[in-house]
Amino acid sequence: MTRVVTPGEEIGHAKVGIPGVNVLVARRKLYACVWGVVTTDEDKHVNVLTFKEPRYPLKGDLVLCRVVNVVENLAELHCVCALRGKLVQFNRIFTALLPRTQSGVMGDMRAHFHVGDILLARVISIEIAPLTVSTRDEELGIVSARCNRCDLFMRREDSWLVCPECGTRRKSRISPHYDPARFHTIFMSLYERFE
Ligand SMILES: [Zn+2]
């Protein structure tokens, strides 16, 4: 059976094995030094092996997601990765909801967010599926958008997205990191790996 231990937790009497990786011996007992799983190898070494980086969304994560549906008071998103100092790809596509109350915009969500927009969002709840995310913080919001008519990347003008071809404008929640070509490439390269 897999046993998960926390730092400082007693693993057992020193008789059960030789302290190995991430294990200390004190007063004839073995203790875990890190969070992890207890294993015993063939030559009786007791080890605590740390977890790999979680490949699923964690509360507080900054995630990159794409709008797949929008109704009046919420947007449905697909999340593919977290930015934890580096980019961590999830083990599958996670569906998330962005409620209007967490979006930083007022009125009908359909006026602000369109299918295909790529957002930088914060995970605020993982308790119940799907996840809930927010774009209320200053740095969050749309990082890539294309014109519905021309399919060209839209330019940012203050809090407006503007099509360089047909001039279509839309006021939205735009991230200061807005860089449509770059985020489109990053997102789609990850998204296509799941298909
Ligand atoms: Zn256009």
Question: How would you describe this protein?
Answer:
This protein is mostly beta strands and 195 residues long. It is 8% helix and 43% strand. The strands form 4 sheets. It has a 5-stranded mixed barrel with strand order 8-9-10-12-11. The longest helix is centred in the last third of the chain and has 12 residues, at 180-191. It starts with a strand and ends with a helix. Zinc ion (ZN) binds at residues 147, 149-150, 152, 163, 165-166, 168.
Terminal-residue CA separation: 34 Å
Rounded to the nearest angstrom, the radius of gyration is 23 Å
Which structural category do the helix and sheet elements fall into?
mainly beta
The distinct ligands, each listed once, are:
zinc ion
Multimerization state: single chain
Question: Strand order across the biggest sheet?
Answer: 8-9-10-12-11
CATH topology grouping of the largest domain: OB fold (Dihydrolipoamide Acetyltransferase, E2P)
**Which CATH architecture of the largest domain is right?**
Beta Barrel
Reported for the largest beta sheet, the result is: 5 strands, mixed, barrel
Short description:
This protein is mainly beta.
Write the layout of secondary structure elements.
Blueprint: E1 4-5, E2 10-13, E3 18-19, E4 23-26, E5 29-32, E6 36-40, E7 45-49, E8 62-71, E9 74-83, E10 87-99, H1 109-112, E11 118-125, E12 131-134, E13 141-144, E14 155-157, E15 160-162, E16 169-171, H2 180-191
Parallel strand pairs: 3-7, 10-12
Antiparallel strand pairs: 1-6, 2-5, 4-5, 6-7, 8-9, 8-11, 9-10, 11-12, 11-13, 14-15, 15-16
The site of zinc ion (ZN) has 8 residues, from loops.
